[in-house]
């Protein structure tokens, strides 16, 4: 009887969506704004007058893992196809993270901040990234849906923070994708012995930095987006093949470079800028590890999440850390850090030892890496947007899953076009300056969400344990912020004694004095609360290494998101949640209907 009731509830939800409108590419207004608040000016005015009440409702209401996995999926009408295994996820992880940036950032940070100690910088930033991967892995196993961090934060922290986080990371995805597309043109030009501007169209009537149109930055994302639409498994096969070829190219680069190794370049003045230089480089190099969160959005298409996701995410990140360290050691063995070029370090290092042909290896590796990076980027963007559409915080038209391909066609088209428009017009110098703090902000929220998931369950956690948990969590976050601020404003070390001590004692208190309220069913982060607490501290530390402009851009974009949320997203998601709630109340009545009677007969108009 219980199973029948659940099936009826799902059928009700799905039928409600069907009743609202079509999910095709040619759409009506109702497909974008089907909610009650947008049916007339009077309805919208009433919704705006209720903004405070609605915000409090959505701010305090929490979804559940079961709702995200079952009810939210049903809104898409059709299911994504479960075709991916751990092998696919390992190479998707490699493709999502490994891009052209490694060939530039290594030389820049070795020359400017770390010297040969850049290998330590890569290890520090790699460990920081791995801490985040652990947190994502538990959530992806427990809540295997397309929304990734959006779904995880929504379950533990609510709609509002989830929307702000997801909106910021989508902005970074678009900027990052456009940047990769334009860089693809640059390395492709190198392969053909041309200047990148030979492939661009100069339009003097447009503003500076927006007047070199890049057709390839449109064509390549469209081709990759079409592949992502046609088949996730087919995209995975292409990605795996390209990534394996890229690994072969990287091995050749390392082997060729080591034939001209000079150990004195590496051992003489190993850390010329001291520990501060090493950690400053770590903060910059951390961004060469981001992208793994796109793999978490593929959990819904994974055959066996409990097995495949841990192997895929943790395996790919471990492999990438090794590759990055090997490349950095090779470069520093070939040349002294003082003469490493900051714009084309590997190409010019090979040229300096008479191996001009090797620059083509670097270009091939970069082109392949950027192709797989762009593929994972578009796939991740589309799945984020799909799940946001399921909650109605974005138009539900985006939530559609194609019955034949099992992919989110509408969301993929929209995000691909966004990449193309930005990449066509915007110069790399502009795009490179748009990196915001969104990634670190979201990684921090996911770690906080994991602690909440483990230590607090409504109706089960005692008031005493709840209050102790809140106190310890607040102290962990505040001490991490204090450490970050001290790092940003001071060159001393005395200030770390109280901030790190408070962080340590707060984490220890959480471990010893608060009982965990929930254990993971499939796979869990080890060393809780130490590992997620360290994740919070490391992300805050890295935030302190970013410039003020990054925080300003984050604030501006967040303000734009807030305007949209309070004018549209809040009211759409509120109406949708209330309709689902009414549907659940009607579900028991379905059991009494005669066989063959239409389900829509009991759905409220």
UniProtKB/TrEMBL annotation:
Annotated keywords: Amino-acid transport, Membrane, Transmembrane, Transmembrane helix, Transport
Annotated TM spans: 89-108, 114-139, 160-181, 212-231, 238-258, 278-299, 311-337, 357-380, 411-431, 437-457, 469-487, 493-510, 522-542, 554-574
Subcellular locations according to the entry: Membrane
Pfam families xref list: AA_permease_2, AA_permease_C
Protein's recorded name: Cationic amino acid transporter C-terminal domain-containing protein
InterPro entries linked to this entry: AA/rel_permease1, CAT_C
CC terms in the record's Gene Ontology section: plasma membrane
Claim: Transmembrane helix is one of the keywords in the record: yes
Domain of life: Eukaryota
Membrane association type: Multi-pass membrane protein
Gene Ontology molecular function terms on file: L-glutamate transmembrane transporter activity; L-lysine transmembrane transporter activity
Domain Cationic amino acid transporter C-terminal: start-end pairs: 523-573
Taxonomic lineage: Eukaryota, Viridiplantae, Streptophyta, Embryophyta, Tracheophyta
Protein family according to the UniProt entry: Belongs to the amino acid-polyamine-organocation (APC) superfamily. Cationic amino acid transporter (CAT) (TC 2.A.3.3) family.
